[in-house]
Amino acid sequence: MMILAGLSLRLVAVGLVGLGAVLPVVFMFGLKAYQRARLLTFLNPEADRSGAGYHIIQSKIALGSGGLLGKGFGLGTQSQLNFLPEKSTDFIFSSMAEEFGFVGCAAILGLYAAVIFIALRIAGVSHSHFGRLAAAGVTVTFALCVLINGAMVMGLAPVVGVPMPLLSFGGTVMITMMVGFALVLSVRVHRYSEVTRGGGGLI
Question: Residue 145 and residue 165: Cα distance in Å, rounded?
Fold first, then answer.
């Protein structure tokens, strides 16, 4: 949001360098044992196949076993036989990959891309700086959830419990996303309005 609001990229770069410098200290002294184990398991899940690495290994098996077209709805072995943990929440994308295959996953990601593109277009046509930031912020949050969950189930990121928006079962994430999209649609409706600097309303 700070970048979208116009913060100098030089300041952002300095902040990222400072963050990188303190990460080793945070890893050693700021994280709890189970949190460090998650990061280490991400680097080598095979080291603890039946423990910390179980989730991601089963997820990869489900992803690979779906093949091109999948096994069919309700016919996935990893998900239906409960080898795949959290099959309706964190790892629902793996479950869908097993049942609908690469084609089904590509279609889902294509729909996500369409939603992100449309939302960014809405942000771009808003005449209000606040409207642009609000719509873009919601869109970036949505896109990051898709990216992090997709990377997580494929073993490209640590398992952090980020749900796949609009797919994962759960009331909190669904309500949050719906409120966010309501805000984006409001920006679309009021795209020709501008918020005054003094907060005195729309002009």
Answer: 7
pLDDT at 202: 43
> 3-state DSSP helix/strand/coil percent for the chain, to nearest 5?
65, 0, 35
Tell me the C-alpha distance between 49 and 31, whole Å: 23
| DSSP string for 104-163 | HHHHHHHHHHHHHHHHHHHHHH-S-HHHHHHHHHHHHHHHHHHHHHHHHHTTSS------
Coil, helix or strand for 164? coil
Q: For residue 180, what are the CA distances in angstroms to 109, 132, 161, 167, 187?
A: 20, 13, 20, 16, 11
Q: Tell me: the pLDDT tens digits for 87-111?
A: 888 888 988 888 898 999 999 999 9
